[in-house]
């Protein structure tokens, strides 16, 4: 399988590069306006590199690939997914797939036109603890408390991730994980409330079909924590992410990747929160 990668210099790109190697793929082209992409040498030294989207697009038109992996800033995901679909490739895109739900509809239309699929990286669903929780709490109504801390330094606010227009803000860029996993475990969301919203911390409540959820999301310094407490039982997702991108790629190649409709409920809630708080 031939792969191309958009966003080769980004934070998450190494996980995709390794996953491509792990599944036996060949990364043949990469795009990023920043040329700090020496990481390609470790696995794919012959990979073609482009700084300009136009040149990359022209190259793809003459050198088709099977998959385009997207690790670019959030606000560019839908445009890059469309570029990939139009080139005749399937897509593997980092979260959030889009910042606005309306863009999901456009991508769905292009899936039909091209007979290709947009796959979304939802690695938390593949975590062994999450899978066990899916089986353990398949019935009943629960009290759910989520404590999600991923410390980030001062650089975060100065980067595109700190720009709401580009990242969607904290609850979109980071919170999409906790909302998607909660919906996956306990059913559709019914109503929500936000109690705190700053650039580096947010908290609120969410009524799900089978859970009453209180959540706290933080980028402040401290010990990383990704804990979902169901009644008095902790589901700890703090560690164990090392192989989940590879598992995501395996599922995609097997035809079992998560798609547009999988991410729609979480996209809808984070957009509603963003619109109300900004």
Structure overview:
By secondary structure, the chain is of the alpha/beta class. It folds into two domains: 2-120, 3-Layer(aba) Sandwich (Rossmann fold), CATH 3.40.50.720; 124-240 and 267-277, Dihydrodipicolinate Reductase, domain 2 (2-Layer Sandwich), CATH 3.30.360.10. The protein has helices at residues 13-22, 40-43, 53-62, 77-86, 101-114, 128-136, 155-158, 164-167, 170-173, 175-186, 244-253, 260-277; strands at residues 2-6, 26-31, 48-50, 67-70, 90-93, 118-120, 142-149, 189-197, 201-208, 211-218, 225-230, 233-236. The strands form two sheets. A six-stranded parallel β-sheet has the order 3-2-1-4-5-6, sandwiched between helices. Strands 8-9-10-7-11-12 form a six-stranded mixed β-sheet. Strand 9 and strand 10 (211-218) form a beta hairpin. Helix 5 (101-114) runs antiparallel to helix 12. The chain starts with a strand and ends with a helix. The mean pLDDT is 96.
Helical percentage: 25-40%
List segments where confidence is low: pLDDT < 50 over at least 5 consecutive residues. Answer: none
The radius of gyration over CA amounts to: 19 Å
Q: What is the total domain count? A: 2
Series of secondary-structure elements, N-terminal to C-terminal: EHEHEHEHEHEHEHHHHEEEEEHH
Number of helices: 12
Strand order across the biggest sheet? 3-2-1-4-5-6
Q: Hey, roughly how much beta strand do the residues contain? A: 15-25%
Main sheet attributes: strand count, strand direction, barrel closure:
6 strands, parallel
The mean pLDDT is 96
Annotation, overall tally of beta strands: 12
Write the CATH homologous superfamily of the largest domain. Dihydrodipicolinate Reductase, domain 2
What is the CATH domain class of the largest domain? Alpha Beta
